[in-house]
Specification:
single chain, 75 residues, alpha+beta, 2 helices, globular
Length: 75
């Protein structure tokens, strides 16, 4: 499984019903991958969910920068 697939699976697991799309870029000098997570709405427990994603990526020795956008058209 490659890093994009691994990251996609983690984000889908945590944000499934909120997820609209993922946009990948990189790798860059300090990161293995940059990801924009596009959500329909921001879940109340967003920070906890995002921490779970980051924790699993760091435990697997990946440096992934994740940002999010709330897409009002899908909310």
């Amino acid at each position: 499984m490659d890093l994009k697939e691994f990251t996609t699976n983690l984000v889908k697991e945590e944000f499934g019903k909120y997820l609209v799309d993922l946009r990948f870029s990189g790798p860059y000098e300090d990161e293995d991958l940059d990801v924009d997570v596009i959500l329909k709405e921001k879940p109340i427990d967003f920070e906890e969910r995002m921490l779970d994603v980051f924790r699993q990526l760091l435990d697997s020795d990946f440096e992934v920068l994740i940002d999010y956008i709330v897409d009002d058209e899908h909310g």
